[in-house]
Amino acid sequence: MSRVASVLQAALLLFSTHLSAAVAIDGAAIAASDQGGDWLAYGRSYSEQRFSPLKQINDGNVDRLRLDWYLEMPDSRALNSTPLVVNGVMYFTASQSVVMAVDAASGALLWRYDPEVITRLANRKHMRFNWGANRGLAFWKGRVYVATFDGRLIALEAATGKEAWSVQTFPLDETRYITGAPRAFNDLVIIGHGGAEAGAVRGYVTAYDTATGEQKWRTYTVPGKPADGFESPALKEAAGSWRGEWWKHGGGGTVWNAITYDPLYNRVYLGTGNGAPWNQQVRSPGGGDNLFLCSILALDADTGEYAWHYQTTPGENWDYNSAMDIVLADLEWDGKPRHVLMHAPKNGFFYVVDREDGRLLGAEKFGKVTWAERVDMKTGRPVETPEARATDGVSVIYPGFLGAHNWQPMSYNPDTGLVYIPYQEMAAEYDKRGIDSERWRAEDFQMNTGFQPYRGDITPDDVSSALLAWDPRRQKPAWKVDLPGFQNGGTVTSAGNLVFQGTSSGYIHGYRADTGRLVWSFDAGVGIVAPPISYAVNDKQYIAVLAGWGGASYIGSTAMAQHGWAYGAHPRRLLVFSLEGKAEPPPTVAPQTELLIVDNSEQVIDTAQASAGQDLYLPRCLGCHGVAAVSAGGAPDLRASAAAADLDAFGTVLRSGQLQARGMPLFDELSDREVEQIYWYIRQRARESL
Ligand code: HEC
After folding, report:
1. 625: CA distance to ligand 1 center in Å?
2. Over residues 620-625, mean pLDDT
3. Average of pLDDT values for 470-476?
4. Which of 38, 68, 319, 637 is catalytic?
5. What is the pLDDT of residue 2?
6. Domains of the chain
7. What DSSP line would sit under 225-277, residue for residue?
8. Please, are residues 561 and 459 in contact by the beta-carbon 8 Å criterion?
9. Strand 138-140 and strand 109-113: pairing?
10. How many CA atoms lie within 13 A of 362 on its CB side?
11. Are 208 and 304 within 8 A, CB to CB?
12. Average pLDDT over every residue of 482-505
C-alpha cells in the first residue's frame, strides 16, 4: 500500500471509531422497521423481510440510477453475502470468510479481516467442500460476528476489525462446515452449520454470549442414539418417528441457512435441513416422519427449548431441506390479523404459518411440483404422488435437489403485499438401484446421498428460472418474469415500489414491485447470486450488490456453465448505485463461449477405466469442477486443462497438494490406479465434448 493510502486509511479508521462509539446496535434497533438508512441484520430487520422503507429511488426516477462507486475484489470468487450498513460503514463477507469494512458512501477500505481458512484447512479433507462462499454477518453492540467455513465463530470490533474472541463450533475432524450468517439477539449470537452430504452429521445450533463467546445453549435438530439418552423430551418424542439405526448415519437436519429471531414471542425459528443421507430407505428403513428434518423448528430464544414445529416434508427423501429463509409478517387471514411466518422451501410449496402455535394457515404450490398433489389442510401433511418414492428403481420428479427456491433470499413488500421469490425449475433423478440399504455408509468428505450419483449432464433445456411475485393472501402468483439460466440472485424490495435482483446471466434488474415491469438494468459482467440491499448515507439512497458467481452454482453442468463465467476470468466486484452516480462502469470481460478442449486424437479411450473413474470423480470433484466435468467456474474446466491431459502432471496436482493455497484440495489417498481411472474419465469427457 502506498504511504498516502495508509495515512488515509488511518484517518478513516479514526473517523469510524468515532462513529461506531456513538451507536449501540441492540435488539430494539434491529427489530425496528425504520432503521434510518441502515441495514442492521442479514434480512435487514428481525422480520427478514428485506424491505427498505427508503423511497428516494422509486418507480418514477429509477431510470436515472447510475453506478456511484465500486470496489474490485481481486481475491474473491464466489460472493454470496448480504452487506450490513451501520451508521455509514458497510460490512460484508468476501470469499473464504474474509470480512471487509468500507465507507458506505465512498467505498474506501476501512479494514479487512482474513481468518485464513485455506491455510487452516491445508491438508484437511474439509477443503473438498470449500466453494469459498459465505452469506454474511451479524452486528451487535459495536461488534461484527462472522462464522468461518472451518467452523469458528469470531467476534470482531466493528471499529478496527480486531478479534475480540473466537470459538470453534465443531471439532475439525467432523465433516461439518459453515457458509451461513450468524444472528444476534438478547446478547446471544447463534450459528448452525452444513455438511449433511459430507458425512454422518447430526445437526445442531449453538448460542454464545456476545460479550465473551461462552456457550449458552446448544440444541440438536434430530435425535441421537437412544442408548446415550436424549437431550430433551422433544427429541425423545421425535425418536419415535425414526426407524432402524439412523444415528449411525447422523440423521442430518443441519441448520445451514435459515435462522429467524422473533422478538414478539422471543423465539428463534430454524429452517432445518435434509436427511443424512437423502435416501430414506437407507437412513430410516421402514419410513417414519423423521422429525425434525425439513421443518420449521421454533425454540425459546433464551434456553433453546422446543416450542413447536411444522414439518414441510415428512419422511424426506429428496434433499428437500427447509433451509430457505423464514420471513415474519402481520397478515390479515380469514378476516383476522395474524402474526405469521412465510416460507418457500425447496419442495415447491409456499407456507403461511401462525407464529403463535405453529398452526398451518396456507400451503400452495408456487411452481412445478410432482412429488405431492397438495397439502391436506386438515392434517397439515403433503399428499404424495405415486412417483414420489419408487421403492425399487428410479424416480424423476420436480423440484430437483436444487429446489424450486434455494438459499437466495426472497423479500416481502408490505405495500404491495407480495413476496419476490427467485424461482427455478429442474427435475432430479433419484436412483436407488444397486444401493444396499443395510451396508451403505457415508464416506467422509465426499458427496453422500444414498442414491446413485447422477452420471449425465444437465443441459440448458433441462432448467428454467423466473422472478416470481407471490401473493401470500390469495396464495397465487401476482406476476412472473422468466429469466435465462438457473440460480439467480436473491431479491430486495423497497417503498419506492421497486424490486431488484441480480441474475445468473450477469445483469442487475429493477422492476416495478406492483406490476413486474422491467424499469432498469445494468450489465455487471459476471453472474450474480447474492441479494442486493438498499441503504442511505447523508440522505442519499444507494442500491448495492456483490457480483460474484459461485457457491452451489459451481456444482456445474452445461446448464450452469451456459453464461460463460469461466474460472478466474471475470472480475468480482461490489457495485453500488445512486441517482447521482457518476462512476465510469469498470470494463467487463466477454463471457467464455468457446472452450479449447485438449484432446490427443491418437489416444484410444480406455472406457472401462473411464467408467470406474467417473465413480471416483463424481463424489469428489463435481462440487468444483462440475457435473459431467463441465465447469461452471468453480475451478478450471478439466476438459481444457493441459495438466489433466498429462498423467504424471495430473497425479502430481492431486497428490502433492501443490495447488492447495489456490483452492485445489489434496487427494493423497488416491492410488496410482485410481488416479489413472479419473484421468481416463476426463479424457473421455474431453473427447465427447469436441
Ligand atoms: C474444493 C474445490 C475443488 C475440488 C473438490 C477439486 N478441485 Fe481441482 N482445482 C480446484 C481449483 C480452485 C483449481 C485451480 C487452482 C489454481 O488456480 O491453480 C483446481 C485445479 C485442478 C487441476 C489443475 C488444472 C489446471 O489446468 O491447472 C486439476 C488437474 C484438478 N484440479 C483435478 C481435480 C480432480 C481430479 C478432483 C477430484 C478428485 C478435484 N480437482 C477436486 C478446486 C477443486
Report:
1. 7
2. 95
3. 98
4. 319
5. 42
6. 3-578 (2.140.10.10), 607-688 (1.10.760.10)
7. -GGG--SSHHHHHHHTT--SSGGGG-EE---SS-EEEETTTTEEEEE---EES
8. no
9. unpaired
10. 22
11. no
12. 97
Q: State residue 23's pLDDT score.
A: 59
pLDDT score at 19: 47
Confidence of residue 130 (pLDDT cuts 50, 70, 90): confident
The residue whose C-alpha atom lies closest to atom 32 belonging to ligand 1 is 654
> Which atom of ligand 1 lies at the shortest distance from residue 554's CA?
2
Bond preceding residue 115 cis, omega within 30 of 0: no
> Is 436 a catalytic site residue?
no
What per-residue confidence (pLDDT) applies to 24? 87
Q: Encode burial over 409-427: b for 16+ CB neighbours within 10 A, e otherwise.
A: bbbbbbebbbbbbbbbbbb
User: Which H or E element spans position 685?
Assistant: helix 672-688
Q: Note whether 563 and 519 are within 8 A (CB).
A: no
User: Exposure pattern of 454-466 as b/e (b: 16+ CB <10 Å)?
Assistant: beebbebebbbbb
The DSSP secondary structure of 105-143, one letter per residue, reads TT--EEEEE---HHHHHTTSGGGGG------B-EEETTE
pLDDT value of residue 215: 98
Average pLDDT, the chain: 95
The pLDDT of residue 10 is: 46
Contact 471, 477 (CB under 8 A): yes
Distance 664 CA to ligand 1 centre (A): 5
Q: From atom 1 of ligand 1, which residue's Cα is the shortest distance away?
A: 128
- Antiparallel, parallel or unpaired: β 204-209 and 188-191: antiparallel
Q: What values do phi and psi take at 589, rounded to 5?
A: -105, 135
648: exposed, middle or buried (Cβ count in 10 Å: 0-12, 13-18, 19+): exposed
What pLDDT, on the 0 to 100 scale, is given for residue 48?
A: 98
Grid cell at residue 20: 461506531
pTM of the predicted model, to two decimals?
Answer: 0.96
The span from the CA of 23 to the CA of 42, in Å, is 18
Q: What is the DSSP letter of 60?
A: T
Residue 591 Cα, ligand 1 centroid: separation in angstroms? 21
Is the pLDDT reported for residue 469 higher than 80?
Answer: yes
Distance in Å, CA 636 to ligand 1 centroid: 7
Q: Which of 659, 662, 682 to mutate to test the pocket of ligand 1 (most atoms within 8 A of CB)?
A: 659
Q: Which of 624, 652, 660, 666 to mutate to test the pocket of ligand 1 (most atoms within 8 A of CB)?
A: 624
Nearest residue (by CA) to ligand 1, atom 26, is 641
User: In Å, what is the CA distance from 226 to each residue of 217, 232, 237, 354?
Assistant: 21, 12, 11, 32
Helices first, then strands: H and E counts in the chain: 10, 39
Average pLDDT over residues 227-249: 98
Place of cell 421443518: 295
* 177, 597, 625, 646, best to mutate for ligand 1 pocket (most atoms within 8 Å of CB): 625
Å from CA of 653 to ligand 1 middle: 8
Q: Atom 37 (ligand 1): residue with closest C-alpha? A: 621
Ligand 1 atom 17, closest CA: 662
User: What per-residue confidence (pLDDT) applies to 552?
Assistant: 87
Q: Give the residues surrounding ligand 1 with Cβ less than 6 Å away.
A: 127-128, 130, 620-621, 623-625, 635-636, 638, 641, 643-644, 650, 653-654, 659, 662-665, 667, 678
Centroid of ligand 1 to alpha carbon of 663 (angstroms): 7
pLDDT at 378 over 70: yes
Question: Which residue from 664, 668, 679, 680 has its CB within 8 A of the most atoms of ligand 1, so it is best to mutate?
Answer: 664
pLDDT of 20-59, one tens digit each? Answer: 444 589 999 999 999 999 999 999 999 999 999 999 999 9
Taking CA atoms, 646 is separated from 638, 642, 673, 680, in Å, by 11, 7, 15, 11
> How far away, in angstroms, is 113 Cα from ligand 1 center?
26
